[in-house]
Design brief:
The complex is a heterotrimer of chains A (320), B (451) and C (328). Chain A is an alpha/beta fold and 320 residues long. Chain A contains 9 helices and 12 strands. Helix content of chain B is 51%, strand content 16%. Chain B contains 15 helices and 9 strands. Classes of the chains: A alpha/beta (320), B alpha+beta (451), C alpha/beta (328).
Chain lengths: 320, 451, 328
């Protein structure tokens, strides 16, 4: 990917937490790039650190952080060097926003949804309430919520509608990047598909880029331009969506792909034996080695990130 | 067992909990010791004892340790008994009449006066009372004739109340007068000082019958006594301070256990069955909540009994349907919907089993801190009942001490120790339980974890 | 196709499960018609899947079969006994013949019991008093769900286990009383992709080994074909299509089934390049469902003056039973 088309570029992003049992290496040297009008999927199973990655990107950190460093370039500017006030004024919810996990259940129950969507506008752009509500109404049209829902309360809306409202809220300040943390995991199949239709349309119409964090491989293909696979706090493969869904490279990606039950193909799914390592005390070398059918002696050393025709794989198999 | 050990290890991570726990354990050991060392009956008879039991102690004397903070030590009490000490007494016999000489030489080494000086006589005779003459030899060699009188089988001569003697000392009360150097002219009574030195009190007695005998006991009452001091009835406050501990713990623990456990089970039953059972429990609770708790206790105390155990039962009965039921109900309503409860129904668990084995254990972690915090609350309640005169008439307790002290002018006359000592142990008990309780809450309550 | 010679284990006839809505705690305010006229037979050793979105009544149907809800109308016959008439001992006996695997494995296990206690509970409740016998059965069932060596797990509490291990314990508990029927309510939807398949295969292995009848309840069509013989698709309290699984995924008949399939993704990069054709709107309220066919307001193939008027009966199309006027 050429650098001038890069909107968001992440290098060595690291986030550790202090716990009673020791430091948890939730995000460990994460890297990926995201272009304009693109969507990158961060694919990983529960406990791989993908939600911590969202927190690290938006600097929504809990108190027990023990290490937080790396480089995050947003339109060429390293936002990790900003102090909190600059970050708040220039990045969070201005150029980068978030649809948090279970966002539809985190709407304020005593505020009309229109006002909630308008709120970030009032805070970050200092616009008048009326203008902000107009903007909110526009956003409602974009995400497919009837405009007369502006005056309703969250409990009067269905789950799908509430999720759309949460998406509208993340978009109202016209950010360049929206991070979606499991945006459809609690929704029904039809609603889920509808939300993905909306997201696809938004990507085109609003020229927004998405970071989609999910564990659901099948639905992630609905939006993905690029795929980054996360395992035990690390990125193991960053690939182009077409090549990834056709044939992933990293053994973990392959096995993950093979575990997906398919509706339209007669292919028996396979599972991965064993469990991911604890982030408290991850093994040295490749973190997947213990479960990997292709492991060999080298795997006890930290694998390099190898570039295979533009696909980055963190695996000894591809290094010569 | 393992989890209990883990719990204590975790608990002791909090310094406040560790300190509180040490105090509680100390209090429990102390209570057990008290009950063994000073059995109930003995303690009660001591506490109910009159002047005969307590004649040897001074009235409202401060604890001894106040001397640590004073430049000039307050004098202590001392006494001599001719019956114990043979060398103080000489007897002469001549044709049926005994002449008995009792001599109490004593060292007085304080410039402060004693509180009182008294002589207690005992004699044996058939018809004729013995007659005594009491005099004092001061360190400078003066002899002061104090009084002479005939005595019955027992007789108490209170020097301090001898009006004649007081006139002799020009109005200075006799327990002071005898220690004053008459050559020193003091401007006011407050400036008078006792002269330290060796005094000798002499009792010259005459018994008129064969076989008749006479003994005397001299008590010079000081201003300090024991580690806790004494009250207006000369009783040693330490008895009530000591016995207050087991009483407070028992009351606190029984009432806290009695209320929380029954409340929890009632809440669980109501929530599980729902419907009219729940309705009835809710309505009873609401009515109970507006009943005037204290007034009912006062009525029971006035018209029925003030016994600690009656009060305990009343407190439990009135608290069972208390506000806690609503709190428990809210939690049980959540647990009731838990999938594991549904699973238990699916594999055939009975209602009672679900309540006792599936709902209740879930709430125990939340219950324990609440219980621990409720213990001191009920200890305070018991103390408060004493203060409004609803205390147990027999048992010595901390609250009773405070009530006695306040009622007898401890605070207006400067006997602060009388009120402050029980207040301090109450505070210490409350604080210990509270410190442990709050730390437990942090451990058990997931919402407070890591805060 | 279902072997019709097999004996019927569970027979459900015109089952209605309605919940009364109350206004201010007393006044009647209508019914939630969660299950509204469901009929089917389940044979010994047969697996069926009930597929539908949340609020379609599949959970209420399952709970009624488990004896946790009482039917408003209709009958459930289990081994020729009317479940609605069972009480006390007989009801407990009935419940012990059905295993129950829940959706959320962590919630399904009492957090304060260790694995041994969790697995012993059904045995204790169903009168197995000998501790040695109980332990033998606990160890046997742990072997069945491949939690070995059992000693590594017996004294652990649920929070010390991974999601997959927790779900194995739930399955072990479901089969420890040697039931004839296992009801699995979204048993894998809360698990990670790599574990999901493992659990499904475990369940299928047990099903084959003990000829268990299984009712698999799910919203995810893509797992259905690896698990069940027949699929029932539910919408708004009704079963709209019953079909053998392979036939259903290749030629769905009911417009709602078609929509469900269209909305289900397979991992394919081309998905991102096109919009999916989906029916608009949302599932109806179960208090006041639409007249006629309940799917008609969202149906792209609606027949005017018919679908909104008259409730469709079941029509036989090939091996499918479809409740849709298109197949009259």
């Amino acid at each position: 990917m050429s650098t001038d088309n890069t909107l968001l570029s992440i290098r060595d992003l690291t986030l550790y937490f202090n716990t009673q049992k020791g430091p948890v290496q939730a995000v460990d040297g994460v890297f990926f790039d995201l272009g304009y009008k693109e969507a990158v999927v961060i694919l990983g199973e529960s406990g791989c650190g993908k939600s911590s990655l969202a927190k690290a990107l938006l600097r929504l950190l809990p108190r027990n952080v023990s290490r937080y460093d790396g480089k995050v370039f947003l339109e060429g500017e390293n936002i990790m060097e900003m102090d909190e006030e600059q970050y708040r004024q220039n990045v969070r919810w201005v150029r980068m926003s978030l649809v948090p996990q279970a966002a539809m259940n985190s709407l304020n129950p005593v505020l009309k949804v229109g006002e909630q969507v308008a709120e970030p506008m009032i805070i970050h752009h200092g616009v008048k309430k009326e203008e902000a509500l107009n903007q909110a109404a526009k956003m409602f049209q974009h995400v497919g919520v009837p405009v007369d829902f502006l005056d309703r309360y969250a409990f009067e809306l269905s789950g799908g509608m509430r999720q759309r409202v949460a998406i509208a809220m993340s978009l109202v300040t016209a950010p360049a990047v929206v991070i979606l943390d499991e945006p459809t995991s609690a929704l029904d199949v039809l609603t889920q598909a509808n939300i993905f239709n909306v997201l696809k349309r938004l990507k085109k119409e609003l020229e927004v880029s998405f970071v989609l964090i999910t564990h659901d491989i099948a639905t992630s293909s609905e939006l993905a331009d690029r795929v980054a696979v996360m395992y035990a706090g690390q990125i193991v493969e960053v690939s182009d969506a077409h090549r990834f869904f056709h044939e992933p490279l990293h053994p973990y990606s392959r096995m993950l792909m093979a575990s997906v039950p398919r509706l339209r193909a007669n292919q028996e799914p396979e599972y991965i034996t064993g469990q991911p390592p604890s982030l408290l005390n991850p093994p040295t070398g490749c973190r997947f080695a213990a479960r990997c059918p292709k492991r060999f002696a080298k795997c006890s050393e930290e694998p390099p990130v190898v570039n295979v025709d533009g696909i980055q794989v963190k695996c000894w198999l591809y290094s010569n | 067992m393992n989890s209990i050990r883990k719990f204590f290890i975790e608990l002791f991570q909090y310094p406040s909990a560790a300190i509180g726990m040490i105090f509680i354990i100390g209090l429990i050991i102390f209570s057990i010791y008290v009950v063994i060392a000073l059995p109930y009956n003995e303690a009660i008879s001591l506490w109910r004892g009159d002047e005969n039991t307590w004649y040897k102690t001074p009235r409202t004397a401060q604890p001894k340790w106040v001397n640590w903070f004073r430049q000039e030590d307050l004098p202590e009490t001392f006494s001599f008994n001719s019956a114990d000490q043979q060398d103080t007494k000489t007897e002469e016999f001549s044709n049926g009449t005994n002449k008995i000489l009792i001599s109490f030489p004593f060292e007085y080494n304080s410039e402060l006066f004693p509180q009182e000086v008294s002589l207690y006589f005992k004699s044996q005779y058939t018809a004729k009372q013995p007659f005594v003459n009491v005099k004092l030899i001061t360190p400078d060699g003066r002899t002061i004739n104090l009084n002479s009188f005939s005595i019955g089988r027992t007789y108490t001569y209170r020097l301090s109340q001898d009006q004649k003697l007081q006139r002799k000392f020009f109005g200075i009360s006799p327990e002071k007068g005898i220690f004053v150097d008459p050559t020193v002219n003091a401007d006011s009574l407050e400036l008078l000082k006792a002269v330290p030195g060796t005094y000798e009190l002499i009792v010259e007695g005459v018994a008129f019958e064969e076989g008749s005998s006479l003994d005397a006991e001299l008590i010079v009452y000081g201003h300090v006594y024991g580690w806790a001091g004494t009250d207006h009835r000369r009783r040693d406050i330490s008895i009530a301070l000591m016995w207050g501990a087991p009483v407070a713990l028992t009351f606190g623990l029984l009432s806290a256990l009695g209320t929380t456990i029954t409340t929890m089970i009632i809440a669980a039953v109501g929530t599980w069955y729902g419907g009219w059972i729940d309705e009835v429990i809710q309505r009873i609770t609401e009515v109970n909540l507006i009943l005037p708790f204290l007034s009912i206790l006062i009525m029971i105390g006035t018209f029925y009994s003030k016994s600690l155990w009656v009060m305990l039962i009343a407190v439990i009965a009135l608290s069972i349907f208390g506000g806690a039921i609503k709190g428990f109900r809210a939690i049980f309503l959540q647990i009731k919907e838990a999938p594991y409860v549904e699973a238990a129904r699916a594999y055939g668990a009975s209602n009672w089993r679900i309540i006792m084995q599936y709902l209740v254990p879930r709430i125990v972690p939340l219950l324990i801190p609440q219980l621990v915090i409720l213990i001191p609350a009920n200890v305070f309640l018991e103390a408060s009942l004493n203060i409004i005169n609803l205390g147990d008439p027999v048992l010595p307790t901390w609250g009773k001490l405070i009530q006695n002290g306040v009622g007898n002018g401890a605070l207006t006359q400067g006997y602060y120790y009388w009120v402050l000592e029980p207040a301090f142990v109450l505070l210490l008990t409350g604080l210990s339980f509270a410190m442990v309780g709050f730390s437990m809450d942090r451990i058990f309550n997931p919402r407070l974890r890591g805060v | 196709m279902t072997d019709t010679n097999r004996e019927v284990l569970l027979s459900i006839d015109d089952l209605h499960v309605w919940f009364e809505l109350r206004r201010f705690g007393f006044g009647h305010a209508g019914y939630v018609k969660a299950v509204d006229g469901v009929t089917f037979n389940l044979h010994y050793g047969e697996t069926i899947a009930i597929v539908g979105e949340s609020g379609c009544g599949k959970t209420s149907l399952m709970k009624t079969i488990l004896g946790l809800n009482t039917p408003t109308r209709g009958k459930i016959m289990f081994e020729d006994k009317n479940v609605g008439e069972l009480t006390g001992e007989a009801l407990r006996d009935y419940r012990s013949k059905i295993g129950y695997v829940q959706q959320d494995p962590f919630g399904a296990l009492a957090p304060f019991m260790n694995v041994q206690r969790i697995l012993e509970e059904p045995l204790v409740i169903n009168g197995i008093k000998d501790p040695a016998e109980r332990e033998r059965r606990v160890r046997k069932v742990m072997e069945e769900v491949k939690l070995t060596p059992a000693d590594d797990f017996l004294h652990k509490f649920p929070h010390m286990l991974s999601g997959g291990q927790q779900q194995r314990i739930v399955i072990a508990r479901a089969i420890i009383l040697e039931p004839k029927l296992v009801v699995a309510d979204e048993p894998v939807s809360m698990l990670d992709a790599s574990v999901r398949v493992e659990i499904l295969k475990l369940l299928r292995g047990l099903q084959e080994k003990y000829r268990l009848a299984v009712i698999y309840i799910t919203h995810d069509l893509s797992t259905v074909r690896y698990f069940s013989e027949r699929v029932f698709v539910m919408y708004a309290g009704n079963v709209v299509e019953k079909a053998p699984v392979t036939s259903l995924v290749h030629t769905p008949r009911h417009p709602y089934t078609v929509a469900l399939m269209d909305a289900t993704s397979d991992p394919d990069a081309d998905n991102a390049l096109r919009y999916r054709e989906l029916p608009g709107g949302e599932p109806p309220s179960l208090v006041n469902p639409p007249s006629g066919c309940r799917f008609h307001p969202r149906c792209p193939k609606r027949i005017e003056n018919l679908c909104e008027v008259e409730e469709p009966q079941e029509f036989q199309v090939d091996e499918h039973l479809v409740a849709c006027w298109l197949y009259k």
